[in-house]
Amino acid sequence: MSELASAAAISITEDQMSAYVQVVEPEKLETVTPQAVIELLNAHGVVYGLLMENIAKFAENPKQYEKTPLLAAAGTKPVDGKDGYIKNYFANDAKELKPAEQANGKVDMRELLNLNNAAKGQLIAERFPPTEAVPGTTVTGKPVPGKDGKPARWKMGKNVVVNEDQKGMYAVIDGLVTVTTDKKINVFPVYEVNGDVDYRIGNIDFIGTVVIRGNVLSGFKVKAAGDIRITGGVEGAEIEAGGSIHIHSGIFAGNKGFVKAGVDVKSSFVQEAYVTAGENIEVTQAILHSNLRAGRSVRCTGKGLIIGGIVQARDYIFARTVGNPMSTATVLEVGAAPELRQELQELTTSLKSLSEQNDKADKALSILDQLAASGTITPDKLELRKKLMMTKRTTEEDIAAVKDRILEIEISLDEISKARIEISGTVYSGAKIVIGRYTRFIKDATTRVMLQLQRGEIVLSSDF
Description:
By secondary structure, this protein is an alpha/beta fold. It has 4 domains: 73 residues, no CATH class; 93 residues, no CATH class; 150 residues, no CATH class; 79 residues. The protein is 21% helix and 36% strand.
């Protein structure tokens, strides 16, 4: 080994995950054995991940590794743990079904929707724990820690409860399982209207989920804390849900009223309407002269026509045809919503205030803990200590929630480069494309195009 030590050199990478052997003075080489190479590696602290096949190659013909070093040992990288997750035992949205046909050939519209009903005490979601990281090892034998997975957090809404071990979520009442804003899981009671919402029914404002087996006529209001399912159509009415809204026969609003959902909106048709969704909007036929705004995406599938009006989404817009040969002004916008920047600023201020409150509580508790340890704490100070501990726990929960939301917003703001518009058919002149603060007008009709922001410019490509 001493002979080899003067003729060859061992180099170890900075992260100690690789070790190389290289000939530096070939004239000093004589017979080289694999064992001599191993002993040289060991002398330099390389004891793990020896690549015996490479070591044998070096020993057989060491001079060919005079200019190019040979990898002689490789460490094992750590494997990060997987995050915990929550498995829902219900669909995130009601399934659209064909109406059941009766023996006389008529159809029963009452059987149009399959709802996520739950019985009292039924398991509706289960939480699975994260996994621990598997540590790696350097070529010098040192352990390399990985990152353990993060536990999933329950987002509990109304009429649900989790068991003592925090593993299962159960329904407290008989009702409809509904996911509302901020991904909270609820079980809402259901209010059904077997017909149109008109003067016979009047306006609806319900704490749960509303199912309307008919139309909603102009001038009426339907508001629900959960979902709203409408088997017919919506005229110039005001429809608002904390969850999702599904309108089977479309929206023909005449620029009156609005449709607003905390999560998703699905409709077959949208004409002269104002539609807002916290997450996604999906239209299966056409969007005509309407204003749509979605927190994530707008998809116009099927016929896929978007003509006139303004369609806005944070991440993604899809359509088959945008505009028409008459160059009707049509605006499509994607990118981070401006209100997110304002919310981020407000959250940052709130986090600073909460942190200051937490620091003050820590200092006060430190003094009170010292009094308690010495046995000189008075009853009123003891009561104050209990209140401060409860306040501190609440403040820490608020801080965690604010930090989570700040992270969500920062990720959204960073992902503007991923925002895109896809048009599988034709986009006509008269269309205006906006991505973030950048704008591009379509001058000539173009087919099959994707629009994205690249280096401060909106570019067109067909790579999708």
